[in-house]
Each structure stands twice: as C-alpha cells, then as structure tokens.
Amino acid sequence: MDLLQLRYFQAVARYEHISRAAEELRVAQPSLSRTIARLEADLGTPLFDRRGRRIRLNQYGAMFLRHVDRALSELDDGRRAVREARATGLGRVSVASETLLTITHLLGSFRAAYPRAEARLFQSNAPEMDRQLRAGEVDFCVASQQLTGENLASVELAREDVLLAVPPGHWLAGRDSVTIPELADEPFVTTRPGHWQRALLERLFTSEGLTPLVSCEGDEPGASQDMINAGLGIGLIPTMSRLAGTEARAQVAWVHVNAPDCHRILTLVWNRETHLSDAALKFREFTTSRPFTSHRLPERRRERDDDHLP
C-alpha cells in the first residue's frame, strides 16, 4: 500500500465513478482500475460494490475512507507547516464568511496589525463552509448559523438583534414594532436557501404556521438594503448593518420584529484537526480578544518581533 493508491482511492470514493476520477487524476482508466484492485487485494476485501459499470462505496470502503481522509489531511498539513516554517512571513490565513461586508474591516485591521500575514477571503453559505472546513480549504468560518461538521470548535463573536427594513413611504414606516402575522402578505427581499437570513425568515414564519412570500432572492446579503429602498420588498437586516450605514447608502425605515429569537449570533468556527499557520493563530487571537464590529476598525497595534503565540 502506497500514497498513490490512497490518493487514487480517495478520488474514486468521492466520485464513485472510475471515469470521472481518472479524468481528475489525469490517468488512464484501466490503470486506475488496476490500482484500486491492488489496494483491495492488500486489504483483503472489496471497497466498492460493483453493478455493471456502476460502483458504490460499501461499508468497508466508507470505514477505510475516514482513515484515509485523516491520514492524507495530516500529510497535507505537514507540507504546509514546512513551507510556512521556511517562509519569512507568518503564512496565510483563509477565512470564509456569508457576506464579505461582515469581515472586510476586520481583515483590513488584522493586516494592518500583522503586515507579514497573508489573508485570503471566501464568500460561502453554511453547507459550503462545512465542506471547506472538512477539506481544509479554509482555516476559519465567520458563521451566522450552526455548522454541523465533525471536529468543529467555535467561539461566539457577537449577538445582535435583526430588524425589519422597509422602503420609505411603506405603511410600516414609523411603526415601532410589528408581528409576523402582520407580514403574512408582504413580499420579502432575502437570500437563497443556505444563508442565515433565509433560515431565520423561514423559522420565524414557520413558528406562526405561515410561509413567507419571497419576491427577490440572491447570494449577496449586502445588496438587500438597496433592493428594499427600490421598493422590491421588505427584509430582515442585522443591527450591525444598520449601524454601518452612511448617507450615500440607500435609506430605509427600521421596525423591530415582535418575535422570539429574532437575532443573529455570529461565531468563529474552525476544525480542531486541521493545522493552523502562525497567521491563522494570530487571526484567532486578534478576532476573539476584542469586541467584534463590522463597521469600525479595531484599534491598530504594531506587530512586534517578540510577539509570541499563546
């Protein structure tokens, strides 16, 4: 059994399709099939159920895959650790967030404090974040809903109310609060399923036995306020975004929602089993050691040569 066999097995297990795996690995299909057959012979049991040209991972294959994923992940972490140790900087930190506006200023402030650190930012919904953390594609996720992957650790960054935004002149403008049943026939501007705003909207309506009327959905929550201002509907927006508003930004009226749990909990999530670079460790310390805000840069501090990791 060698490393190449494990890489080949991992690809075939992911696709459950020899041809697609061979295409990704850029090897001939017969060669890939022979490699998998040799691996099964070494283990003394088939790893796939074969029905004609179709293959499916069986119980032994699924069991073996969990160990292979961990082993290859450890090797990849080792390679990254060696590269980072040889580099002159702190290495890279990769962060995923549901909307870039949530952490743009945070990352900017972090880079100002640690100019030798490289930062990479992804925009992802909750299912994609789970996958990215498992695959080691990101170090951290800044999430507004619970991530369900294994071996995940998290710390709460902020808890804030979520308000209802309505366009100027709307019948709710000027109201202090509103109940969910009063919104039963109102069109909503929201995000696609997988984002926290959509999950919150559906949860609030389901608790009242209702279904929200969605007039506009997208993948960029930061655009919601502009669409609401244009009269395309009403929408749920966190207090943090309201505080971040400027005169140049689209104006809306704000109404409190009289419903339990109409709030957002923002958490920093990471995989306990994934190697974290010096930059990633610095980022975690930087993010969790001060009040979180998306609209104001935390106080800048100079990076010192004797600045040690905890």
Radius of gyration: 24 Å
- The CATH C-level name of the largest domain is Alpha Beta
Oligomer, anyone? single chain
Number of domains: 2
Pick out the low-confidence regions: 295-310
Structural class by SSE content: alpha/beta
Main pleated sheet: 8 strands, mixed
What is the annotated CATH architecture of the largest domain? 3-Layer(aba) Sandwich
Q: Report the total helices.
A: 10
- In the CATH hierarchy, the third-tier topology of the largest domain is known as D-Maltodextrin-Binding Protein, domain 2
Strand and helix order: HHHEEHEHEHEEEEHEHEHEEH
Mean pLDDT across all amino acids: 85
Helix percent band: 25-40%
- Overall shape: it is globular
Report strand %.
15-25%
Ends apart, CA distance between termini = 39 Å
DSSP strand count: 12
What does this protein structure show overall?
This protein folds into two domains: 81 residues, Winged helix-like DNA-binding domain superfamily/Winged helix DNA-binding domain (Arc Repressor Mutant, subunit A, Orthogonal Bundle); 209 residues, D-Maltodextrin-Binding Protein, domain 2 (3-Layer(aba) Sandwich). The protein contains ten helices and twelve strands. Helix 1 packs across helix 2 and helix 1 crosses helix 3. The longest helix is centred in the N-terminal third of the chain and has 28 residues. It starts with a helix and ends in a 22-residue tail after the last helix.
